[in-house]
Amino acid sequence: MRVIKTLSALVLLATSFMMSPAFAADVFMKTGAPTSQPIGHYDFCQRLPRECNIRSSSIEPITLTQQTWDMILSVNHSVNSRIRPDTDMNIYGKEEYWAYPVTAGDCEDYALEKRRELHKRGLPLSSLLITVVRKPDGEGHAVLTVRTDRGDFILDNLRNVVLNWRNSGYTYLKRQSSYHTGRWVTIVPSDNIVVGSVKARK
């Protein structure tokens, strides 16, 4: 535990250096126009409409203190350890079924659970955004982006380390809007990648 805390302090210290003017633009995602909702999230919203109608009055990123950083690391590790990876087909008998996991789940289920846990601990939903990416092998993937005043950080079920989005090795496609939990926006720059989605709601 002492080693983990020491490493977390060093990582947080390193992020403060990234916030110099030369690096500031790169540590934050730049979002673009409204875009299509992933089909799995659309279905999730149909089942749980209250989850997807929350509007944020403020979209300022959270202030990243050492205590908040330790909490982010703890939740990422705890959910990764507690939930067993499995496919939607094996768990629910269908593809692209987004849900809060109980004992098993796939990537978007991990992201949903981490979002819920961090929100319970006081972080605003406007800074906890499910994000669709493409892995280096071309496979689609979902992670949780945590927006902070020191950059956008990625909570991933494939690793326990929490990295700035630029250091994850992924191609970023879209993420939830900070203003509205049921809306999605593009991430700039992005490729014209075809993913399972439904038409964006106005």
UniProtKB/TrEMBL annotation:
<keyword id="KW-0732">Signal</keyword>
<dbReference type="InterPro" id="IPR010319">
    <property type="entry name" value="Transglutaminase-like_Cys_pept"/>
</dbReference>
<dbReference type="Pfam" id="PF06035">
    <property type="entry name" value="Peptidase_C93"/>
</dbReference>
<protein>
    <submittedName>
        <fullName>Peptidase</fullName>
    </submittedName>
</protein>
<feature type="signal peptide">
    <location>
        <begin position="1"/>
        <end position="24"/>
    </location>
</feature>
